[in-house]
Prior knowledge:
This protein is α+β, with helices and mostly antiparallel strands. The chain is about 30% helix and about 15% strand. The protein is built from 22 helices and 22 strands. Strands 3-2-1-4-7-6-5 form a seven-stranded mixed beta sheet, with helices on both faces. A hairpin with a 2-residue loop joins strand 1 and strand 2 (about 175-180). The longest helix has 26 residues, at about 620-645. The chain is globular and about 100 Å long.
Amino acid sequence: xxxxxxxxxxxxxxxxxxxxxxxxxxxxxxxxxxxxxxxxxxxxxxxxxxxxxxxxxxxxxxxxxxxxxxxxxxxxxxxxxxxxxxxxxxxxxxxxxxxxxxxxxxxxxxxxxxxxxxxxxxxxxxxxxxxxxxxxxxxxxxxxxxxxxxxxxxxxxxxxxxxxxxxxxxxxxxxxxxxxxxxxxxxxxxxxxxxxxxxxxxxxxxxxxxxxxxxxxxxxxxxxxxxxxxxxxxxxxxxxxxxxxxxxxxxxxxxxxxxxxxxxxxxxxxxxxxxxxxxxxxxxxxxxxxxxxxxxxxxxxxxxxxxxxxxxxxxxxxxxxxxxxxxxxxxxxxxxxxxxxxxxxxxxxxxxxxxxxxxxxxxxxxxxxxxxxxxxxxxxxxxxxxxxxxxxxxxxxxxxxxxxxxxxxxxxxxxxxxxxxxxxxxxxxxxxxxxxxxxxxxxxxxxxxxxxxxxxxxxxxxxxxxxxxxxxxxxxxxxxxxxxxxxxxxxxxxxxxxxxxxxxxxxxxxxxxxxxxxxxxxxxxxxxxxxxxxxxxxxxxxxxxxxxxxxxxxxxxxxxxxxxxxxxxxxxxxxxxxxxxxxxxxxxxxxxxxxxxxxxxxxxxxxxxxxxxxxxxxxxxxxxxxxxxxxxxxxxxxxxxxxxxxxxxxxxxxxxxxxxxxxxxxxxxxxxxxxxxxxxxxxxxxxxxxxxxxxxxxxxxxxxxxxxxxxxxxxxxxxxxxxxxxxxxxxxx
Length: 733
C-alpha cells in the first residue's frame, strides 16, 4: 500500500499537471504584456527571475514553462492583464488585419540582440545534407533554446546570407558534445574535435561574421569565444601560467600552436593569447581569418566587461552579440576595438578607377589616415620617443617644449558660504570624450612647421602661444562680457587648473577658446596639418547610437523630463545587468580608443630613444588624442563658466568629466538652473545623450571636509563622490 506521503505527492503532481491549463497560449502572454506596456525585464524583476526566462515563456514553439511558485504568480499577472486588455474578437476586420500584419511585419531591429521582442514562429526546417553542422531542439541550459530550424529573421543581424547566424558564437561543451551559442538563442552543433578543424568549420559552415562598415572596408572576421570546457576539448589550458600571462601568449612550442602550423594556419605577431587571430593568406578578395576570444585567460577585462566572463554561454553570446551588432565585432580589448572601429569606418585604401587595361589598383582612401605611419611633431612626442633621443638623459621638458593636453584633475577648498551647504553633488558628462570627438577637425597627414603663424581656429595643429594674459575674472560669454571670481574656477588651459605662466604648446581647441573668451592670441610657432578633416565624426555617431540604443533598452530614453531621467538612472543597471555591461564596454571603447592613439611602450625590452611597436601604426596619432582631450576639457570649462555667470555657483572639484558643486539638497536639480523644465543654454543639462550630464553621486559637506582633513588638502573630492570610499583604483583609462 502507498504511504500517505506518496499519495499526497501523486495528487500534487496531478494538480501541477492541471495547472498547465491556467496559462494562456504563448502568443497571448506576449500580447498581454505588450498591451500593458511592460517589458520582459519588468516582469522578470516582479517574479524574481531572469528576463530570458520570461522570453522563453512567451516564445512560440517553445517548451519551457514557469514552475511553482512562480507559475501561480505569473498566472495571476496574466489573468489581471487579460481583464484589463481583452483580446479583440477574431471575427472583426480590425482583428483580422492586425493578425495579418503581425504575421508579415518585420520585428523591431533590437529584437535581434536584446530579445525585447519575442521572435516570430520558426519557419519550416531547412534540410542541408551537405553541411556538417546541424541544430537540434534542447533546453537543458537555462536561457538557451536550440531550434530545429534556421533562426527567424529577428535573430540575424544582417540580411547578408554569408553571416546568417550573426557576428560571433560562444563555443561550449556539454556531455562530450560541442555547441556554438549564437545570438537570438540559436545553438549549433559543432562537429570539430581539434582547433584547426574548429577554424575550418567556422569559415566553411558556421555562417558567422559581419558586413563591412564602410564601402572600401573589409568584412569583420567571425569571432569564436571559447569557454573553459571548450578550451579543454581543444587542448588549451583553462588558465595561463604566470609566465604565459606575463608574456601574454602560449609558448611557440605548445602542442596546439604546432598543430595549427602543421595545418598551415598562421598566428599574428601577438601569438596565441587571450585574443588570438588565426589566418591563412587571403585568396583574392576572400579572407581566411578567425578571431578567438578566451575569457578565462583574461580576454574580457573586468574593469570594462565586469563579470561577463562568468556568464552562461547563451548569455555571453547575447551580451557580446549586442556589442558587436551596435559597435563592431570585438578585435581585442575595448581600447583595441575603439581604434579598430576608426579604421573600419575609414579604411586606408580603396580600389582605383580602371586603368587603360581595365585593372583596378589600390590607392589612398581620402579622409583616412592612410596605410603608412607619419611622424609626430617634437612637441607632440611623449618622453622616450626617438625624436627626443638627442635630449639629455634626465632632461625634464617644460610647457614650452611639450604639448600637455590632458583631462582635468583640479580641486579647491570650500568657501565659507559653501561650508554652510549640506551636500556635495557630483554630475558626470555622458560619453564626454565621444562628445569631444564630435565635429573636431583633426590632421590626417604629417605636420608642417610654421613660424609666427596667424592662428586659424579651423586648422588643426599644435601652437606655441602665451595665454597667461587671459583673466577669468572678466571674460566674454557669448556676446557679453561677464565678471567672475577667477579664484573659484580652474584655468581652461592646464589640466591642474593653474593659470599658465608663459608660452606653452596647446592644441587648436584650447587656443580657439582663449579667443572665444575675448582675448588676443599671437602664436610664435606652430606645427599645423594642412590635410585635415572630421575623421572621428562617423566613429562618434556609431558609438553614440550604440550607447543611446542600449540605454533605451534599459529604460533611459531621450524624451524623459529631468526628474524622470534621474529616477530612471537610479538603478537602471538592475533592469538588465547584461545590457548594463554592454554600456560599460561602450564607454570603455570611447576612452580606450582615444588613449590608444598615443600608446606607450609595453615592455618588450624597450629603451628610451628606441621605437616601439605602436609607432608602426598609422593610428598612432598623439595629435588627434590631444585635440579630442583639449576639446573635451574646453567643453567642460564652457559649461562651468556659463553656470557660474548665471548662478554665481562654482565647482569645488573637477576630475575629467565629473564636476562637484555644493548644494542645499542632494539632487542635481538642487543647483542646476532649470526654468519650466528648460536648462540654461550652454550650461549643464540632464539627459542621456553624449555631452549631457547625469547624477554621479552625493556626499555631505561634513564628509568632504573630513576626508580632506584626513588625506590632505590636495584630495580631489570628484574622484570619490560616487560612493564616498577613499580608495585608489585603476580605471583603465
